[in-house]
């Protein structure tokens, strides 16, 4: 799975599953960057073939509805959707 990396303050292992065309995903990325969170992300809609299969399999572990955005934190906690208050509380 090819991940894009955004530098910031290390606040745990943060992985964002997003769509390149999703306004809520863009807002989530902007909020993470405002909070100076270091994170990795993948635009699921820009993957294909085996990589897409791998990404979908990983996402299904955390969000069986395959909805976006999905943030996985330290491979144990999950925030589904643009939950601004929860994201702020988690990373401030």
UniProtKB/TrEMBL annotation:
Q: Where is the Glutaredoxin domain?
A: 14-77
**Pfam family example for this protein?**
Glutaredoxin
User: InterPro entries, per this entry?
Assistant: Glutaredoxin, Thioredoxin-like_sf
* Protein name per UniProt: Glutaredoxin
- Species, as recorded: Methanobrevibacter filiformis
